[in-house]
Model the fold of this input.
Amino acid sequence: MWVQQIALAVIGLSAGMVVAGGLFSFIIGLGVISDFADRTHTGEHILLYEDSVALGGILGNIFFVYHISIPYGAWLAPVFGLLAGIFVGCWSMALAEILNVFPIFIRRVKLIRFIPYLILGVALGKGLGAMLFFAKRW
Done:
């Protein structure tokens, strides 16, 4: 019985590492990290940024799997949520930029004058949706 549990643990851990490695490769391949480094003029630290993304994913999984509590977690949760939302927003924008979704859409619909309002609307809608989602859970 314990051999089966060890085998399942090894298979699960291996599969998790493969999926996480693929996700980190995808994030780095999209150019999200290099875009951040380029816009902040800190390209010499790009390896540190990539390691930080990987370490954040690893630590997040460890905290989730082993139910490790973080001191002052209730105060840190909104800060983490804000930073995670910014990261996910940048990630989705990088994916859309790679696919040239927005330039093609904007040209076809002729929205050139209203781009700032479109971006503001997307940001406010995403923020309001997240706020309603989390308010409903409490």
